[in-house]
Amino acid sequence: GGEGGGLPLGTHACKAGGAAGARASGGDTIDLAQATIATGVNVKISKSLSFVGSGIGRTVLTPNASTDASVSNDWIGVAGGATVNFTGLTVNGLSPTFGISQAIHYLSSSGTVDTVAFLNIARPANEFDGVGVVVTAPTGTSVVTVKNSVFSNLGREGVYFQDPGTQGTVSNITYTGKGPGSFIDFGVEVAFGASVVVSNSTFTNCQGVVAGASGGTSAGIQVTGPGSTLTAFGNTLQNNQVGLQVGIDQTDSKGNVTADTPKVTANYNNFLGNAISVLSDVSANPPVDATPHH
Length: 294
Description:
This protein is mostly beta strands. 3% of the residues lie in helices and 50% in strands. The longest helix has 9 residues. The termini are far apart.
């Protein structure tokens, strides 16, 4: 209640926000009114809460500063094993006015992101920064669902999953890339042993390419890393440089190749107008079941 709905994202949200945050108990649902709410960055949430907005374009979160990598790359960080849900919001990073590396980061925590728009999240000085939702589990587990959400004008990618303890579900999202240029777009990236299911989603205009040894090629979906598992079905991947990118071998200074070995099952997906539909950059030829598709 109150101005901004009592968003417990620090005292900068609004006068009611800090008080409501202090009063909130684990398991509470906090209803956010129709408003544009400027919050601080490097915010940490360590108790289970649900934030329910008035809808995309009606409840809008914006930062009041750039994220500081010396403190945290996160605008909003969920930690401590909490379960935190976000529903019915726009999360607008206001790039290039502010540089945001990661909008929402689940760190060994869980939750659901449902009906949220992620816009203008980037650090213009670094073409590899700017992620809507990051899910990692360096210890313990993270179980996160992202659904019914849209992503546009992000510096790098929509949703990033990492670590063997991470399980993710992505459904009915739309990721629109930035088109051609010297930058990267991934709608969803699965890495370092995470296990993710992506379904009934649309990934378009991921066309950027960054040259050089540290560069890369954009893709609608990318999966890398030994032990990573992707199941993808019912998706549309259209007008991308690569529709589905599987694996990236690593070559050291002596020419020794370490093979990447993710496991991918991709059935009943639509590949339309991509420069490359499915690219496996893996010498070990891990299992990639990509039939049938259109």
